[in-house]
Automatic annotation (TrEMBL):
Residue ranges occupied by any Amidase domain in the UniProt entry: 26-431
Any matching Pfam family: Amidase
SUPFAM superfamilies xref list: Amidase signature (AS) enzymes
Name this polypeptide is given: Aspartyl-tRNA(Asn)/glutamyl-tRNA(Gln) amidotransferase subunit A
Source species: Palleronia aestuarii
Keyword vocabulary terms for this entry: Transferase
Lineage: Bacteria, Pseudomonadati, Pseudomonadota, Alphaproteobacteria, Rhodobacterales
GO molecular function, one term: transferase activity
UniProt cross-references to InterPro entries, sorted A to Z: Amidase, Amidase_CS, Amidase_dom, AS_sf
Length: 442
């Protein structure tokens, strides 16, 4: 049973379907592991054992009757602590929301529950989702699976580590500037950032509504595809027969390749060559609109985040982690004309980007330009916190500003990911492409 913790969600599902795995025993295996694991208090904000056991018993009954609701019926997963869960605290990693208990599940949690997935509990996250490194001294800072002295990436920090440490079969996250893709990359997982509006946001604690997106973190592309479909209440795309041969990739230069950590540079370039060796056509190109769009980040992102949270923050600013609080306050003095002018630039950049990327199956780039930084330095050196946070999200936020769909894949180099980006609304196509790329990178 211990082996179940490290199996893919798809393989667990096939075991349930064949009768070799009992959903109740599977759920107990994960709950026992969470209880016993020394790091679980830094990964899970709270577990939901009563709900999990009830859902597992129902899944077991359906499996015996041959009436499973979805391919992941009976598979235990974790939920980031910004997805509302009925009767269970949802605090978004912040003492500002301490004791907040919603009456209803978020729509995506309700969809997944109807598909038969088992909810293990809620995972730690960066405070109000406003940091990419995964440091949260106020409630919990999960460690990276490759270096327990380093952070795990955020803001979906506990989501990634719940899977990475074998404490969930898959996890959910949100992504406003890289919060799924950064922790997925640093913990050697697959992470899917869906396009704007691809998954319903009802019952999800917001950060920046014009940029907020949702998606899964998983062991492989099949798991990400199945979990995304469950969250959406739809059928998963068919990944069989996906091929990378003849696919055209634009390898993004410009800002995305600047100041890379040597290990990231080497690991990413090796991954690109493996894609080429598998038959992909790779063209290295600059897209000037990317740098121009990213330059607007200090205006639109902070302004929208502060507009959402200003009253809550300023009512009790002392309970926030100061570096995160000051990130929010960076939007305090942005004028309306500057905000609207920045959005005009972003809209122009989106049009220019799509024109430049037309004719390619995907644009590729390193997911994060740096490796996971040391937690102690982040906690004690404010300038280090600011610089590492900006660098962590530099590449991923390209997809948020340009309204794209993104999928990060492990490269085989620890904590180095390869990010594939396609236009919004192309999740099914991207997952097929990602499945083919995954085989090439394995």
């Amino acid at each position: 049973m211990e082996d179940w913790r490290w199996m893919s969600a798809g393989d667990l599902s096939r075991g349930i379907g064949s009768g070799e795995i009992d959903p109740v025993a599977l759920t107990e295996t994960f709950l026992d592991a969470i209880e016993a694991h020394a790091l679980s208090p830094r990964i899970y904000a709270r577990t939901t054992p009563e709900r999990a056991r009830a859902e597992a018993r129902a899944a077991a009954g359906r499996a015996k009757a041959g009436r499973r609701r979805s391919p992941l019926d009976g598979v235990p997963v974790s939920w980031k602590d910004l997805f509302d869960s009925a009767g269970v605290a949802t605090e978004a990693g912040s003492r500002l929301l301490e004791g907040r208990v919603p009456a209803h599940d978020a729509t995506v949690l309700r969809n997944a529950t109807e598909a038969g997935l088992v909810c293990l509990g809620k995972t730690h996250m960066t405070e109000l989702a406003f940091s990419g490194i995964g440091l949260n001294p106020m409630t919990g800072s999960p460690p990276c699976v490759n270096d327990e002295e380093a952070v795990s990436g955020g803001s979906s920090s506990g989501a990634a580590t719940s899977v990475g440490f074998g404490l969930a079969a898959a996890a959910t996250g949100s992504d406003t500037g890289g919060s799924i893709r950064a922790p997925a990359a640093w913990n050697d997982l697959v992470g899917l950032k869906t396009g704007p509006g691809a998954l319903p946001m009802e019952g999800v604690v917001p950060l920046c509504p014009r940029f907020d997106t949702l998606g899964p973190l998983a062991r492989n592309v099949e798991d990400a595809s199945l979990f995304w479909a469950a969250m959406a209440g739809r059928t998963a795309p068919d990944l069989e027969g996906a091929s990378i041969e003849g696919r055209r990739f634009l390898a993004l230069e410009t800002v995305a390749m600047e100041d890379l950590d040597p290990a990231v540079d080497q690991g990413y370039r090796a991954a690109v060559e493996r894609l080429r060796g598998a038959g992909a056509v790779i063209e290295w190109r600059e897209i000037p609109a990317v740098a121009r769009a990213v330059a607007q980040s200090s205006i639109v992102f902070a302004a929208e985040a502060y507009a959402v949270w200003r009253d809550t923050i300023e009512a009790r600013p002392e309970v926030m982690y100061p570096p995160v609080r000051e990130r929010f306050r960076g939007g305090r003095d942005v004028s309306a004309p500057d905000y609207l002018a920045a959005w005009r630039v972003i809209d122009e950049c989106r049009e220019a980007y799509h024109a430049a990327a037309a004719g390619f199956d995907a644009v590729i780039l390193p997911t994060c330009p740096i490796l996971p930084p040391n937690r102690h330095r982040l906690e004690t050196e404010e300038d280090y916190f600011v610089s590492r946070n900006l660098m962590t999200l530099r590449n991923t936020r390209i997809g948020n500003y340009l309204g794209l769909t993104g999928l990060t894949l492990p490269t085989g180099t620890p904590s180095v990911g390869c990010l594939l980006q396609t236009p919004a609304g192309s999740e099914a196509r991207l997952l097929r492409l990602g499945r083919a790329a995954e085989r090439a990178l394995a």
